[in-house]
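Task 17 of the worksheet. Students: predict the tertiary structure of the chain below and write it out as structure tokens. Keep your answer in the requested format; marks are given for formatting as well as content.
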Amino acid sequence: MPTFTSYDGTELAYHLIGEGDPLVCIPGGPMQASVYLGDLGGGLPRQLIMLDLRGTGDSAVPTDPTSYQCNRQVADLEALRNHLGLAQLDLLAHSAGTNLAALYLVEHPDRVRRYVAASPSAFGVGLPITAQMRLETARRRRDEPWFPEAYATLEKITSGTFTDDLWQAIRPFSHGRWDAATQALAAVPAQQNEEAAELYVSGLSPDETRPALATFRNPVLVLSGQTDVGCPPAFVTAYAALFPNATLTIQPASGHSPWQDDPAAFATTVSDFLHR
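Model answer:
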């Protein structure tokens, strides 16, 4: 397992999967170990560089907890680029990881050649996701047997009621299918640094980030799942419009982790974009 030393002396780890030109991958969570990304469904003709953010996975815990803030971790990504000896990165970020990627694009726009935002997060850019967006997306699943209970629970959540048991009840909406294999996968506890996650979001500045992304002119792929209530198609469309050179792909019958629901479609879309 390779490691490198970041700007403050914290030793960070990354994992190498596959062969080919490097694709640096930032996990979501926020602050979840990169292991959940697996090999992104396989089929990508790239060497995946899966970064464990500070305090997660095999990376060390920093001495200064405030360095968990998203804006502080931009320097970690730049330290990784220098460690790899790359003039530019091809970058993929998932979910909450897109907040960090967006800040990196703003601070180092000349150091990213292509960027894939998978199931992007709204927090870093300040775009609204309304209750109506989530409910409309959820109703695509109305013919599935678990739908009535899950939908009623989602209505409670979107009305402002939040408890752990309610979040568990709407898990099917995060996946393109809710079969035995998916349920087993969803039951695996997330390797997340919860303390770090709270500090991570405090380092966001959406009102500054959003207009700055309009100046990033290199190719961007925004990819999401059609059934993902956490990242509804209406929001993803607005997210893609932030970039002047973005391609939007909404993958059918897929949820928050589209490489799990349809790995072949995910691999084809991402590969075509990276080799365009």
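Marker's comment: Strands lie at 3-5, 11-17, 22-26, 47-51, 89-94, 112-118, 220-225, 246-251. The chain is about 35% helix and 15% strand.
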